[in-house]
Write a structure and sequence with these properties.
- There is one protein chain.
- This protein has eleven helices and no strands.
- It has helices spanning 2-27, 34-41, 45-51, 55-79, 86-103, 105-116, 125-152, 161-181, 187-190, 192-201, 211-216.
- The radius of gyration is 21 Å and the shape is elongated.
- By secondary structure, it is mostly helical.
Amino acid sequence: MARKTKEQARETRQQILDAARTVFHRWGVNRSSLDLVAQAAGLTRGAVYWHFKNKAELFLAVREDVLFPVIDEIDSIISSGHEGDPLDGVEAALRAFFRILEDSPDVRMVFDTIVNRCEHVAEFANVLSDVDGSMAEILAKVESAYHTGAVMGALRPEVAPKLAALDTWAFAAGLMYRLLTSDADNEFRRHASEMISLHMSLRRLNHAQPREARQEGGTGNSGQ
């Protein structure tokens, strides 16, 4: 019986998160309320308050539910040093992120809410700080990958790893914004893959050589 109660509680919590994701995106975070979430979930106001004490806590839970798996995947790709080349790892992470953004409506909805529908009010100061903290961890991993790339001779010597990481961060944020705010048929969506290739090639020491040629040249363990 206790197990069933716990399972029901988990199901109810997920029901609230799913409803809140839609409510926050439709109304914007500032105009949303736990009452609206309760209505959308088909639950009582008390049921929502039993799981979440306020809107900020609920919003953070929505963000964690959808984005933490994405962050973990991107983190894993960057840290793996994809195919023995840290810059390949950064490129693979960029491609994975934008593939997820394209394929997952839930991920797209939450990012769109954070970017375009989350007003910077005092109530959400801690929430936004937490979001920024998680993003800063990824930025640090990208910088570390560029540092390793510099040691390995993969990064152009005149490119500072920290500036390269900030530039990649700005590139990814800008492209994400354009994909979230533009219609489905737009230049950014059509050329996203080529833009990622160009972005990474400009920081590689052997930037004039296609990636396929670098792999065939035996630069790492890609054939293993």
